[in-house]
Every structure is written in C-alpha cells, then in structure tokens.
Amino acid sequence: MNRRILVLATVAVAIAAFAIGGLAYTRMTPPAEPVAAAVSEASGLERWHSPVIGPMNAPVTIVEFFDPSCEACRAFYPIVKQIMDRHPGQVRLVMRYAPIHQGSDEAVRIIEAARKQGLFLPVLEALLAGQPAWAVHGAPNLQQAWMIAATAGLDVGKAQADAKGEDIAALLAQDIADMATFAVNQTPTFFVNGQELVEFGPQQLADAVAAALPSAD
C-alpha cells in the first residue's frame, strides 16, 4: 500500500472535491448505467460480467481492479471520470472487483445487487462518498453501507436477497481468480489497453491514456 499512500497524499484535493465535484460532474455529464462487457475474454482482463462505462468501441480501455473499501480507489474515481470526460467517446472503463479489505466482498454484493435494479452508479457513488463512515478497516459497518445504498434509491429488501445469488458469487470468484492471474495485490490497479500501469499516479494514468489514443494523422 505504500505507493497508494503516497498517491493518496497527492490526490487529497481530489478527495475533498469528490462530493461537490461528483455532483457537478453528474449535472454536466449524466452517467449512463454500465453495460456488460461484450468483449473477448481471451486475455482474462475483461469478463462478460464486468461493468463497462463508456462506449463499447472506444479505442482506449482502462481496466481497473477496484475495491469499494479502498481509499485510493475512492480518490481515483473522480480522476478516472475526468480523464474519460477529457476524451469523450474515446475511453471506456471496465471495472473488476478486487475485494481485498474485510467486508469488501459484501460491498461488491451491494453494488451488484444495485446493478440489477439499474442503480449501479448511484449506489457506487453513494458508497464511495460515504466510505469513511462504513469502511473502517478491520471493523467495516456493512449495515451502514446498506443504509447508505438505500439513500440512493435501492430497494434493500430485494437487493439483500439478490446479493446472496449464485451469479454474484460466481462473478466474485472469477474476479478474485483473475486477481491472482494478473498478480493484483493492491488497489486500484490499472491496465490501459492491456498494459499494466507500472508507474502509478494520476498523471501517469492520464499520460498512458493519452499515449494510447489513436493518432490524429
């Protein structure tokens, strides 16, 4: 986590601006609910079940291994959106789950159950905004996470039943298996067009995306 901690320090402003900035972004660019990844699974980086935000034919694909309890993932969320907004129609985000922290597997189940209700993004953003309250490492408060999800419009009763489904269990198992395949042991871990972002940081991610864009020539 060391490099993540360093990055956290550099993106502290982004964290502070998350709530306000997120609302502003929502007003400027209404988010579309993610769709399933209609992609080749040959590499294993993308799976059919993976939430995808952005156009399916975008020339640049960011694959993010993501933990909803992770502070750095929370910090990077608005940064990734800003990068996508900077290159409209050119970048898509494939989200893979990496439930490293205690309780993150249930948080993933909340997000996936919300997805079944067409509330993936509202619930994801509510959980990220409320992360300091529910995602205390070593003592996560999942009941509070469910309550926060409810504020985003989630039908909690239905979602709690859906969250126990074998389909979500299988999705989680696949993503965890792929974490091992790609040696993902910290979050967020990014791949840009299949290449892992080795030098980690907001600028490095932005530069990797810019470099992967098709030439204007």
UniProtKB/TrEMBL annotation:
Residues 29-214 form the Thioredoxin domain. PROSITE patterns: THIOREDOXIN_2. The keyword Disulfide bond applies. It comes from the Bacteria. Keywords: Disulfide bond, Oxidoreductase, Redox-active center, Signal. InterPro entries: Thioredoxin-like_fold, Thioredoxin-like_sf, Thioredoxin_domain. The keyword Ubl conjugation does not apply. Pfam families: Thioredoxin_4. May be required for disulfide bond formation in some proteins. Belongs to the thioredoxin family. DsbA subfamily. PANTHER family: DISULFIDE BOND FORMATION PROTEIN D, GLUTATHIONE S-TRANSFERASE KAPPA. This is Thioredoxin domain-containing protein. The lineage of its organism: Bacteria, Pseudomonadati, Pseudomonadota, Alphaproteobacteria, Hyphomicrobiales.
